[in-house]
Amino acid sequence: MKIRTVLPALALLAALPAQAQDIKVGAILPYSGVYASIGEEITNAMALAFEEAGNAVNGRALKIIRADTETKPNVAAAKARELVTSDNVDFLVGPVASSEAMAIRDFVHQSKIPLVMPNAGANVLTGEKCSPYIVRVGFSNDQFVRPAGKWLFDKGVKSAFLLAPDYAAGRELMGGFKKSFTAAGGKIVGEEYSPFGQTSDFGPYLAKVKDAKPDAVFVFYAGSEAINFIKQAADFQLAKSVKITGAAWTVSPLFLPAQGEAAAGFLGSLNYVPALDNPANKAFQAKYQERHKRVASEFGAAGYESGRLIVEALKRTQGATKDKKAVIEAMHKVEMNGPRGPLKIDPATNNVIQNIYMVEARKGADGKVDLAVVDTIANVKDDVNGCAMNW
Amino acid sequence: MIQLLNALQLSMLLFLLAIGLSVVFGLMNFINLAHGTLYMIGAYVGFAVAKATGTYWAAFLVAPLAAAILGLVLYQLLFKRMQHQSPMRQVLLTFGLIYVGLDAVRLIWGNYSQSVPVPDLLKGQVTILGEPYPLYRLFIIGLGLAVLVLLHIGLERTKLGAMVRAGVDDAETARSIGIDTDRVFILVFALGCGLAGLAGIVAAPVLSVYPGMDMAILILTLIVVVVGGPGSLKGAALGALLIGMVDTFGRVFLPELALVMIYAVMALVLLVRPQGLLPIK
To answer: pTM above 0.90?
Structure first.
């Protein structure tokens, strides 16, 4: 056949709607902007989970359709609409930022297309603003730090100073810690919220923490703020008088190389570290590293588990996606051992029930600082927090 | 006391940045919003040099030079034509450059934060009133003061300084008595850019190096220039001192108003002394 006859035929084929039996998963994630690397990692890891299932369930092919949110809530809202109304996706997976999740929440709830969230921790998304169609595989901010409050108190931390950036996640993480820490009998001797994204010198805050003389400071920072805080705390020798603890994203493998030795001794809670010792994680990391030449972070783990959850639920419905309620209920029945450990979706809130790990940054024999798991708090589950499921 | 040192250290960084911006503005009425970008470039070049050579001091020398050269290139290619155009055009052009700089840095060094180690000589702490204080931060304060003194001497005691002062005072008269104000401008511009680069590499070990570090400090720098009075060395120094203090102590004593404080000070100064605290004219 001549190329001239092939081309129009190809064009015709491409113009045809995708075959009805494909299962379409709309990846509503940032592929440009600050969080581009996170969106990419989640998608890659999810694709890996689909691959393991042979990219199909009951003969229906699994297809990922990417939509770039640019980490902007308004763009996310428009893209969600596009995926649902013109691409006719059967599932949505994403987004990364809570602000994006809030922006698409109402639309998802009304359109009844199951949304699986590998990230976005705002408590209300599985609390007062919960929806039966929104399933969170990642974490809630509260869940992430709540176990740390009691754990640290039991280990002898009787008073704490809270320090976080002044925005929703910073406040929610501090709130979650405060709740369990004070309930256990701990005392908060001070709290500071630094202007979000506008603080590079933590000197003033560090001096304030020292003056308050707490047993520990509990912090959450990310990005350059995390690096600056950790390095400056070491410059001021804060650790000599105050134990440095917090949401262990602050010393995420993403920032550890830049923080170096200054991070050693940081004690905090996390829901995943690449070094977790379980078969599912080892297999996942081996595959991911072989394919993408780098260690998968917590984002990759959650992306992979989001993919797995979809596959396992579909197996239970024999590949049927029409009855959305049945799909969600199938998700509730899935119990899996993911890279993070045992996972389950709580039918009361649609938030994940997962292990939270207490980790410590330790300097290894090679001089490199790495995260070591100190303790495991198993099956951490959120309260209902005002969530009522309106199907 | 510790907080006072923290405030001084911020003031000195702001001074290094503001002085270039301020004098260029005073001399030629040229607003270079990309001044912060040169600070960031200085930090990144410093980071690259420190990594390649393994010594901070090489970076300390190269970074200001790189920023100055880049400043000169930008001047020859772009700013020269814009010099006598409306401020709005200057603002738009240099604002655009901020984004170009940001993406260039992302392209070359990636999105993640990098860090520059503190030089061995300045590692460690000094005990001040029973509290350990990082030696490196004292170095920043000392360096800022040294630059201030040097610039003061240069401006008051040298021929070039006299030419600069004449240019700022009255460019037309200066030209008519044979001062090549354009040349003076280029020199001052390069020096200002170099100081921005110096601020970048000096800040790098404490504040780390990341895309967007320029925006964090540009606003503060602009406020310093406005508060101090454009074109004046003393104004920049006083403005930097005031804003550094207000920002630091605002965060300590009135954390809820931390962000508002510096703007409130600026508004107050503009109301009472619209020409700035220590204007040149």
So the answer is: no
